[in-house]
């Protein structure tokens, strides 16, 4: 009979879930909209390593030195010349003022000891672009000086970046996995509002007047929510890959573990919220606050390292941080099951889950809302 | 043997004594109605009997079964329609009935229940699209899905229009024909009077009266109110008033123009006397009425409270 009961509870909850338009909106469309917005705003032109600055060169008094410097400047790949040939000083200043170009480089007027001028807009004096331009220019001049005295540099810097990710990991992948994690977490955090609703409408009481097993009912609901979670992963993944060129390197084992543990944790948190919320509004308030805090502190949109240092300890305590990390292990880094950090994260999440669940059950029991007979 | 027996039931919420000491027993096949003002303890009493609230003290027995050890067995045998119509509103009528049916080892088919509650035409409709009366009928249908011997209906007709209310009465009477026992609470005196085999009036957590509706009304009728009005004006009324006051059964009278109100413990004797007088004098009586006593009067007499629908 338990099997029959479970089957009918499962079908009923599946139907209810998919008949509720709000479920579709908040769990599928809203995350897609959010992801698309973030991709457009922060995804930019793609990889963050492709720095480019638009400059122009003025050569007020052409001479041998300025000619040599000009031809070398034109070789620097990150400098895009607005005009291939030198322009007048006035023209250059005007462009800087209008921010048509990032910087104007003024070539020396005499041969021998002289200076190269760099003109930038004051509003952008401290910007990263300006600093990069001046850095590049400085190095360039240094080399030119060395060349002028016939020396070659003894030491050079060679720079390369490394990541645990596969070579082609970029911000799109990072954001997509963050969004998947966030929407799965929100599914749990907000999903339990149903319990408050059922309690308010007397449905929990009504079920307890029957011999129905409440545990089975809860389990059936849980599985239905997991199914919704799978749909979220698939749809957001597809949008990320096909609309924004995100790359997936799936490790099914770590993905499955992170997904499952995460679903349990956030459902447990929702369950806890439902235990002390008398109204649906109260529940939504608590769920919103917790989801907002975690959203910005858990490395969903930006790496945790970008947070101010004093704040860095907070994400280390939040379950969403480890959930998103775990999903990234499973979806884009294709590693994890063997790594200790993965399991540390899963353990911290599990602790959150267990504590929330026990606390919630205790509150339900103390209010004698839970089935006593 | 009673199918339900309740003895000295007590329940307090903090300082509030919701139920003081309630005892009654219900026989098989009865419609047993509990009425009382808001906050009298009706729902608390029902919820204790239904096993939702543990009583502070007292005994609840369903035949030889009691909550705790025999909880499962009791649940198989009772059906409950709670005050808030607790139904899954994104499921259809039929889906709700089928879901609830799987909770029980033996159950009525959804088709049979829908027939009884007259919702066969709405079988595929989502509950939230049903009218209030239809939802209430479905709630009752859900209470009978396991073909229980005892059915609890907590204010099944509150907030319904007269036609919808009558539809529910039909269902309750059908259940009685099937030999089921119904325990009903209601806000409508007319309903209690019409449907109940016995009525239990509860006030401030205690039973103040318990009997058949007619016995309760009879117990009140120490005096009846008789109204007369005369075609021959105030003089005739005044003369009749004197005659009435002289009669031994009359408690008091009230005269207002050409109409006369008489309170008498023996209305037929008083009227016989009065009509003898009017016939002799040739006075013509325009209207005459004896006010019917209702459960409402019983309620007012026992609780001292006005009845509010």
Automatic annotation (TrEMBL), chain B:
Q: Which residues form the ABC transporter domain?
A: 4-229
Q: Name one GO molecular function term.
A: ATP binding
Q: Which family does it belong to?
A: Belongs to the ABC transporter superfamily.
Task: List localization entries.
Answer: Cell membrane
This protein's name: ATP-binding cassette domain-containing protein
Q: Which GO terms describe its cellular component?
A: plasma membrane
Alphabetically ordered keywords of this record? ATP-binding, Cell membrane, Membrane, Nucleotide-binding, Translocase, Transport
Q: Which Pfam families match?
A: ABC_tran
